[in-house]
Amino acid sequence: MKNRIFIKDLKDNFTKEVILGGSVDARRDQGKMVFFDMRDMTGRVQCVVLPNHAEAIEIAKTIRPEWVLKVTALVNKRPEKNIKTDVLNGELELEVTAIEVLSRAQELPFASDAELNIDTLLDYRPLTLRRERERAIFKVQDAILYSYREFLKNEGFTEFRAPLIVGGDAEGGTEVFKFEYFYNQNANLATSPQLYKQMMVGVFERVFTVTNVFRAEKHSTTRHLNEYTSLDLEMGFIDGPKDVMKLETDLLRYMTEYLKNNCKKEFDTLGAEFPVIPLGEMIPSMKLSEAQKLISKETGVDCTTEPDLQPEHERWLSDYAKSEFNSDFIFITNFPRKKRPFYTMDDEEDEGTTKCYDLLFRGIELLSGNQREHRYDVLVEKMKWKGLDPEKFDFYLQAFKYGLPPHGGLAMGLERLTARFLNIPNIKEATLFPRDINRIDKRLSE
Amino acid sequence: MKNRIFIKDLKDNFTKEVILGGSVDARRDQGKMVFFDMRDMTGRVQCVVLPNHAEAIEIAKTIRPEWVLKVTALVNKRPEKNIKTDVLNGELELEVTAIEVLSRAQELPFASDAELNIDTLLDYRPLTLRRERERAIFKVQDAILYSYREFLKNEGFTEFRAPLIVGGDAEGGTEVFKFEYFYNQNANLATSPQLYKQMMVGVFERVFTVTNVFRAEKHSTTRHLNEYTSLDLEMGFIDGPKDVMKLETDLLRYMTEYLKNNCKKEFDTLGAEFPVIPLGEMIPSMKLSEAQKLISKETGVDCTTEPDLQPEHERWLSDYAKSEFNSDFIFITNFPRKKRPFYTMDDEEDEGTTKCYDLLFRGIELLSGNQREHRYDVLVEKMKWKGLDPEKFDFYLQAFKYGLPPHGGLAMGLERLTARFLNIPNIKEATLFPRDINRIDKRLSE
């Protein structure tokens, strides 16, 4: 739009006539005058149409929420008593001299500040995403993506694109969507870029990707999605899993600083608090067996023989990390061999466990990672032990056959990260267009 | 790896003892001494093992290409007569004092510089991607991705994640992969994020995404893929398609500058030349009808009644742009209504045509874009005219029903962009793990 200025720049244009483009947020007809709030991608401003602008006020009386306007206006200082400090454009008001309607909107099905249940929120997603709360969530998501990539670029990582059409249920352990490829050949939708990022370690040593992945699990919970965005990274030449945990610590620090500097308004809108990472080289860490002993000792419930943490124990450990280390995060390492995928390296110094970790954040598992088995012969044996057929993995195994450095990595779900950082209980609210057992955009039962 | 330094930093460490990690590129056993080249993610260096380091030379005699090593070495200046200028580390040589083998490699199926046909290149992808030429291609791809996002961020765009599981063959006009979702409901794999990015214009005005998309077309050519990466963007409050063409011009300028500053070595490796964009506000542009008249006049072949450009005419127009404007690019606009998707806006000033454009680059269509129809009623009519059922699009149509600004956008295939910029004839060479009618990693016939 020619000569358009953004709402955030109004304050530099006092007494000037400006051109704006935006959507109507709210309108109050006060008889002779019409007030309305307009928003664009940079902010919001109050507009007033006075009776002396006859053509403009005639149009102003017809406009409704979500109409899209081109507005010509004078940037006026508000009278001293009407100034709102701490609000964007709280010191100014637009005196509208001309309005052009670019797009009309039908009457809205609900008020823009109505409390909506999750199904209504999702049924009307193209509309509800325009709400302040929703825009804040996805601005934060954009910032998470940006800071993730920026940090890794600074650390020498190369971005790569992983394919999502895959030939086999490579990793096992999860349900996959299957479909017919050409010549009656079966294909699957990728559940992770795991095997590709390991192959890429042989090419660029340090690699990352951001990609959709798919799970065909029939869950209907506030924690599961059938399609989500995975932030994956992998690095070569590590001495052990601690190198990956150190990188993850630095990544979360970088991300948190970036969010503090760029998303304060959004965190305020959502009433969320920035993650707290304690000083020191690394987020506190504890072996699963140590954690279980501690929980048993402190709570009296013996969980020392369990292969994994119960949700209440994850919460207990997070509380412990908070009070003991003033940390919102804690690593739990050395989960048993049986429960981890074939590519996880065994920890020979702690029989039956692997060089893996989970990262707990405010009571919930945020992500997991591990050192991978890079030795070809050992990896093939491990596959067999897991009941997998190495021949089906011969493409992937080439990377190992032809030499791969010791390496490790991790994966985080973008939507989970967004939801946890913003303290949003249902992950679907942190997903633009969630797919679940009952929904692809619209409810499937319809 | 503790205390590891990167090969690119050796030149700052003359006379010091350093620790390196990397892969063996080549080895020459000269009896008493062993020479080998080692590479890491930052470069390549020549190493020599002298007989006085007994343990190291014993190991050095066993090492083979692609073995992964940890090496301790002294950074020596080369004798004056052996210095190679213009080569990384051409002035130094590593005197290896200790070697630790981190990973062995089996004998390679071919020499690292062997000319390979496309099938062998892809059959051995985890290995062939390590070749200098392949690493150069995907370093450039990484730089294209980075500069694309960086430019758009500077222009106020917000990144979003589009779902790839979709409910209908939304756009029509292309074959889709179908699969069974839950409760016997059918789902499709997305052929583009088009409808979602338009919905997102109502939320953030300017949006972009990078995502895999899928085409079930049974092509087997050097130009087609069944899965590729789409760089999509969409912007609101445009006055016409020229606003998008202007943005695209600026984006390509930014990208070209970024590549010049960061990928000179890679372009040299591939013998490729940087794109040339002429000075001036915008890449030259021409209506299809004008282009056809010009071609007819200059070549004597009448193509003025054709709805599209033939490949030879795309080449002719590119040559014309090069000689007339010294431009590797030329926009061709106003293709006929019939050949463009339903969401393309008609150009009322040029009957029967639409507000769309293709961008030709060195003889081939690089991308296309257009202004979209943002008026709800007109869009619904256009759908019907195209034989589509608006009810099937009711989720998408909400964005229009509730007010959407005039908007437009474009999409580019990352692999095509990479191949064209680097003058690589077969798009599969610019795709890490290409999927085609005959291949998912391995050949399907196997």
CATH class value of the largest domain in chain A: Alpha Beta
> What's the assembly state of these chains?
homodimer
- Would you tell me which CATH topology of the largest domain in chain A applies? BirA Bifunctional Protein, domain 2
Radius of gyration of chain A: 27 Å
Number of continuous helical runs of chain A = 12
Low-confidence stretches of chain A: none
- How would the global form of chain A be characterised? elongated
The chain pair forming the largest interface, with residue counts per chain, is: A-B, 99 and 100 residues
Helices and strands in order, then pairings?
Two copies of one chain form a homodimer.
Chain A: E1 17-30, E2 33-40, E3 43-49, H1 54-60, E4 68-77, E5 92-103, H2 118-123, H3 125-128, H4 132-154, E6 158-159, E7 165-166, E8 178-180, E9 186-189, H5 194-204, E10 206-214, E11 227-236, H6 241-262, H7 264-270, E12 285-287, H8 288-299, H9 311-325, E13 329-333, E14 356-361, E15 364-371, H10 376-385, H11 394-401, E16 407-413, H12 414-421, E17 435-436, E18 439-440, E19 442-443
Parallel strand pairs in A: 3-5, 6-10, 12-13
Antiparallel strand pairs in A: 1-2, 1-4, 2-3, 4-5, 7-9, 8-9, 10-11, 11-16, 13-14, 14-15, 15-16, 17-18, 18-19
